[in-house]
Automatic annotation (TrEMBL):
This is Connectin. Keywords: Leucine-rich repeat, Repeat, Signal. The keyword Repeat applies. Pfam families: LRR_8. InterPro entries: Leu-rich_rpt (IPR001611), Leu-rich_rpt_typical-subtyp (IPR003591), LRR_dom_sf (IPR032675), LRR_TM_domain-containing (IPR050541). Residues 1-23 are annotated as: Disordered.
Amino acid sequence: MSRRPRAPPPLRASKQTKSKRRTSTVTAMRILLLGILLLCCSFSLTESAITKQRSRKKPSKDQQHRDLNVCDFEQTDSPLFCYCNDNKLDSAEDANCLIFKKLELSDPIWAHFNSQLYIHKLSFIVRSEGEISYIPTAVLRQLKHLNTVSFQHAKLEAIESQSFGTLPSLSTIILNKNNIQWLKWHAFENLRNLTLLNLDENDISELSRDIFYELPKIQKLFLNHNNVSVLHDRAFEHLPTLEELELNNNKISVVTADSFKRLRMLQRLDLRNNLIAMLGDRCFAEMPDLKELHLDQNQIKFISSKALDGLRHLKMLRLSENKLVTLEPDFLVGTPSLTLLDLRDNQISTMTFDNIKPIITNLYNNSSYFYLDGNKLICDCKLAWIWGLRNETRNSKLREGLEELTCFLEASYESRFDTGEDLNRALEIVRNTGSRHGDYHARQNSMDETYMGDNDGYEDYSAGEDYSVGAQVVVEGKPSYVKHLFDLKPELLPCPQPTHEDVMASEQPSSRHSSSIFSFATGGGAGQIEACAALTTILLAVSVRACLT
């Protein structure tokens, strides 16, 4: 019986088979991963190509807004159209925009300002069919280079808090003629470079505290032609750098020192055409640098003797067209630098030397101005100092203005001035007015013939009309004549009920002489009149001699 052959051991064969299978699996996995990787790359490239293609076909929203240039906008139905100095993208510096229709804050046209981010000067003018009732704060904030912005003929009604944001470069805001009624708390705040704010010709009725806040460079504030009747204390206290403040043509009736608190650098204050009735003590003392004070066309009847205290740098004081009747003797003591004083068209009956003494030497200069015409001056010795000023001043225009002054001479004193021909001729030479007044004697004789000794033929001056020289009027119940002051002889001017204040014992400094021009005794009334007459005659003689030589 034969033996079966042994089978070879299977161990080595099994190991080889497993190794081959493992190698095949790894290779397959590598191929699979490579395929997946290639597929992903293909998808990525395809998506990128599609994205690029889409971007070419449809720009982004921001790009759309930039492509729609606000300076080159062609849609005819747009509510806004801007004229720019350069229509290229991001090239305009000056844009003037007209609003033709009602413009809502949500209108997409506002987004197109993103196409011109370098605008320096931007203005909006609302045409008759247009309307805008807000400040587009978000639009302005993105214009980082904006220097000047203006709105005109809008219906803003109110300026809300921080309406202009905190634009770092904004220096000028012009908001005139926009129907503004209210300025809200901090309406103008934190505008670090703002120098000028114009709010003229609106309907603002009240100025409270903290409207103007953190404006460290503001220099000019204009609020003319509004309806301001309430001016709160400290309304401007956050504007210490302000140099010009204009509040003319409003309804302000009361001003105090607190009205202008902390305006230490203010140089010009315009309060013309308001309803101010009086000026109390030191009401402008918070403005020590003030140089110009305009108070024309108010209702001022009284000025305290200390009202102008602290205004040592004041050069110009305008008080024309008020209701002043008398002036406190020392009301100008606080204004030693004053060179222009305008008191025209009041109801002043007299102005004594004590009134003018603090500034008299200033009026000798060529650059000085003094206006007193259009008042109700009474022809008496209280005005005799005007002859001295006329002779001392080097300002020909001031001299001519003084020579045109008229006054009311009580009819009972008229006969005093019927004098000889020689002296009248000398007076005419001093005046150097030629034939301006006509024949002096003929006028005097005509008035003498007309005067009947009672009120017949005299007009009542209370009507406030402007009477010509020679007119016969009733002043304070007394028949009077209208005279040119310099047609009268100063030594014969009446001095009714003289007092120590009225007497011209006050020394008027001379620009040419060390001695006083006027120096009078302080005795009884008759002695004062005689001294006045004697010394004024000397003055007249000196003046005539100077002119004749």
